[in-house]
Amino acid sequence: MTAAAPLDSRLRGTRARRRNERSVKAVLLFAAVLTVAISIGIVSSLIFEAFEFVRSVDLGRLFSAGWFPRRGLFDLPTVLAGTLIVTAVAMLLAAPIGLASAVYLAEYASPRARSIIKPVLEILAGIPSVVLGFFALTWISPNIVRTLFTESTGFSLLAAGLGVGILTIPLVASISEDAMRAVPNSLREASYGLGARRVTTSLRVVAPAAISGIVAALILAISRAVGETMVVAIAAGASGGSLFTADPRDPGQTLTAAMASLATGSDNVTGNSSAFLSLFFLGFVLFLLTLGLNLIGDVFVRRTRQVY
Amino acid sequence: MVTDADPQFDPPEDSTTDAAAGELVNQTLTAAELAQDQSSGRSPVGLHVARAPEAGANAEAPSIVRLEGVSFYYGSFRAVKDISIDVRAHQITALIGPSGCGKSTLLRTINRMNDLIPGTRVEGRIRYHEEDLYAPYVDPVEVRRRIGMVFQKANPFPKSIYDNVAFGPRLNGFKGDLDGLVESSLERAALWGDVKDKLKTSGLSLSGGQQQRLCIARAIATEPEVILMDEPCSALDPRSTLQIEELMAELKEKYTIVIVTHNMQQAARASDRTVFMNMAEDRAGYVVEAGPTVGIFTDPRNQMTEDYVSGRFG
Amino acid sequence: MSNSQAITVGVVQGSLRRRRVDVAGTVFAAALLLSLLFTLAVLAILVGDQMTRGLPVLAERGTDFFSASLSSRPAQAGIAQGLIGTAMLTAMVALLAFPIGILTAIYLEEYAPNTGLTRFIAINIRNLAGVPSVVYGLLGLAVFVALFRALGVGTGRNILSGGLTLAVLVLPLVIITSAEAIRAVPNTIREAGYGIGASRWQVVRQLVLPSAVPGILTGTVLALARALGETAPLILAGAVLGSFSTGGSLGDLFGGPYTALPVIVYDWARKPQEEFRALTSAAILVLLAVTIIANGFAIFLRNRYDRRW
Ligand SMILES: Nc1ncnc2c1ncn2[C@@H]1O[C@H](COP(=O)(O)OP(=O)(O)OP(=O)(O)O)[C@@H](O)[C@H]1O
Ligand SMILES: [Mg+2]
Q1: What was the ipTM of the complex prediction?
Q2: What pTM did the predictor assign?
């Protein structure tokens, strides 16, 4: 028992190290708390100002002739329709091209080809959206939109949608490629073993097995397209305001572009004017939309992980 | 994600002594009974073989780790129940039993590795030199410095061979001749000859058997008193396995070893004492029989033990 | 008998032989390849188009383009203020978002108890990463600009607001990539460390982090590349559109009006004069060079250190 006493004290460990461990943990915890505080800050400032807006305007103004914030007309259908059109155009381009690229990369490309093509796609993913906006305005619009629809003025939801589509191709391609590559090889071998050809295997075996990931890729791409700002702000054209339109060939306003143009003239819209507050209202609507999409996308992403 | 390495079981200080004393008496009684039982001799022939080494070892080998009624819970699942065994100094104690009976779990409670798994709980006492290892004031990090561990799959750090061995001493602020310590540790792990010219190369570049010996060298470089080994040879070829067994025989001069193994020959060849565990109906592991290895293998008192060591189940 | 055998052999041989043309298969593969080529072609056209318009400007103006201030006269306009702004914003992102992001990732992966709250925080962070960047601009406007105005730092529309906004914007990205890098370090390494008596911080600092560094680095460089190209949040957080003159003092630098390279691109892209188109392309070339180098570096790092355990 006499030998036990010093041992006992040694099993306690040194006070310095315990203090050290505690302070490390405190610093890390502080960082985590700060992160949480920031997210709470974002959401609560949005909610607060959006609520101010809803209180300050006559709700009838949310359904009026068009989106002209400086004249007190805040027609929600106008911006929502614009967003819907841009997103639809973007997905019509990005979904087929992105998915086909993914199938090619996952099922056809040699490892060598992959190792070259993938970085190029990643470079495309890294191109700032303001650059694509300019490209949509100065190249897509004259060379594609005006060739198809000669009466177009240069600014159009269509050109903006195509620009956004290009931006989301890499996103669709990389997430769905990951999903297809996660499909175990045994499934492919089983299919080939039955005498199936590569087309059949890709479309009938791999794609269905990866369907959750593919759906997730599309949903996340939609979310990205809904939130894309600069392409639309530059190429869609309606800087001050816009009348309601359902025609992709027209210039128009989206949730995000409306925010950008409000901010661009932001020297004029300050303080508690309803135009200024409408910025936050739009932001809140946008936040809810993308949050919903991301949550749904997340469910699908997790489902892919569970299967294998 | 991991939980805090706080003690998860803090017994009230005052009741400890009583319970412990009771347990101790029990323990002694059991041992005495056991001896009695054996000397009264259901199988006098086996008895002679079995008792000779144990009698000697018993007299001079004090228990260094003692488990008293230990149960371990993963959440609400009790993985082992009511385990009472002695680990004696400078002996090799083998833990055997069918897969899933809780050998690894039990081993890892001894150096509080299980503290790192959230939602786990220990009941009963584990004494190390009579100190309660799970007393609130005990720092699990200190426990692990004294009771080292070698894992089933060799897990060298992605660092040089030298840095692997020097890692533990450096943690402890070792001031002396580090090169010498690294050399002697590798020497004792029977690896020095293989690696003395490439101490700066990555530990991951070694063969499986060499990696496991590197892990042993790493464990002994911190000068622990007890080394826990969880199936250290399961991923090795027979030659490397024999090397490690020889190594253990040498190491027990200096250390106390507890080894989990599925290899009956290994347990029979290499260990002094054997603990045979099995699973109860509720999948909780318990000790069927514990005692000198020779006794367990040549004259098991329990039919289950006999079936297991002779390979008829498990 | 022997005749029918010969026929059977012939049929089997025939069916084993590769069919002459697998039309459907070839068309399908060609379609896939075409879509991929479409993407690559877009990239090539985009870069080529900017080059044809922008390179002459760069050639003609030379260093003047980089050292001149903003101006409404195309012949004199340059991107110096944008370069300074972008450099300062990048530095602020690195100084603020990297430490907080990496420390948060370490806490979540190595320290946080696995409770509902922790999982909620993790989900939260993942969703924050999907919030459109323009919404972060609102945060910058409502919180940072307002804060600096209240503190009396000019109008509050200064580079500090912009930098804080971008830092918050990339924070989730830094956390997610760092956490992934930390999670990729196998548990056996941690067990080995604990098994020889390392404390939690020793295990993290000396075993986990060194193995996770390449992944963390990749994530942070990607985050920087993202911050370099962001425009919308800066416009909301008060970056100036149009020209302004900068005083030389530190106070002006931090408290005065500011802009950044992508903001200049946006500003010029909206101008009606034809000359500004060429200037825009020239500025885009600079912006592309910077972001492609940053992204390329990240991709290189990842491929280089892509360790299989
Ligand atoms: N981290 C854990 N969480 C929950 N249950 C666990 C955990 N680890 C082990 N178990 C359970 O505890 C029981 C004992 O496991 P343990 O690994 O200790 O068995 P073992 O005897 O070492 O088996 P083996 O011989 O296969 O290594 C098993 O039922 C196992 O499923
Ligand atoms: Mg085990």
Answers
A1: 0.87
A2: 0.84
